[in-house]
User: Fold CoA transferase from Cupriavidus basilensis.
Amino acid sequence: MTGISDFTSAATTSHTSPEGHLPLAGLKVVDLTLARAGPTAVRHLADWGADVIRVEQPLAPAGSPAMEDVVGRERGSDYQNLHRNKRSLRLNLKNPDGLAVLMDLVKNADVVIENMRPMVKHRLGIAYEDLSRINPRLIYGSISGFGQTGPYRDRPGFDHIAQGMTGLMSVTGIPGGGPLRTGIAVGDLTAGNMLALNIMMALYERERTGRGRWVHTSLMESLLFMLDFQATRWLVDKEVPRSVGNEHPTAIPTDVFPTLDGHVTMSAPTSRMWPKLCEVIDKPHWAHKSEWSTRDGRSANRVEIHARIAEVTRTKPAHYWIERLNAVGVTCGPIYTMDQVFADEQVKVLGMAAPVEHPVLGKMHLLASPLNFDGVPRRIRRATPDGGTDAGRILRELGYSEEKISELSRNGVC
Assistant:
């Protein structure tokens, strides 16, 4: 394991704090998360100025298999993107001395975030009731796979499983092609985003009450919420939604259409857009066909409508339809590969590829926060540190002596 002495130079370097102008400056966060859902929540707070201390597991003893997060290697792209703007401390929470260090961190923290299975945090003695006793103002945020109560509470929860159990896979894919997961970890990401919102609500409430609160969500709850109109089609209408591929289940026409040089995605389902689409593709009479003039009529005739539109769109290149249709207020866009996404002029203007300098990896670009505060520059202040990089500095801030820090290192606590 890397010793504390190896961190001396990093620890004596002043922690970057041009954060005073950021909205979450002064907020102290202890990050106990792993994988993707929890770190997604923490990233929102870190990106906007919170002082986040990431508490990581100790390194595996020599000769034993290396511990690796499910998001990959410490210096890999995914890990770097998830854990930027944080400081790092390794702690053995199974050691009483390591647990004592965590409690010292918690005493002056505003927020603790974890995504352990419920039984794990209780076994370690770091559940909300444990930590709130030493800090009644603490906001404690949790993400689990299936919720903090119920028969599945202690099951391990992965995005892939949540996509299946919430019905998302059943409405994704080509009709007849079987269930299909989405191309991103949408359950993890949604749970993380929801927990960040939940934490900010709890912090606002604390301004009035002076007391903290346990706030939590799960992959199952968050992803079910994202099923939105598909879920309510069952809850209200008792209709079981099915997969419709690139089409929209209720808004017609919406689909991917062929062009002379590729494809475009297009949607013109409203009473305003549909006639305009008909004009642009030189089929104005379609807008007046009685069986196609209403939303329900177009839904009933979706197969024919989409086929007829495709006959026209395949005669011109993609840019022709994108320009002509958007000019009259009909939504139409290209289908990019990831390299094309970041070459697009609008993406460049939005600054979604944010530069950062890593001490070993050099200059790289990571995905910027999608949030905007007018007048506040959106940037990544600090690259993701190697595990334990900031141990010395953090322990000194807690008032630990050099002798105590060395002792903790020798004993494999941090």
Q: What stands out?
A: Residues 1-17 have pLDDT under 50 and may be disordered. The chain has two domains: 4-226+350-410, 254-335. The chain is about 40% helix and 15% strand.
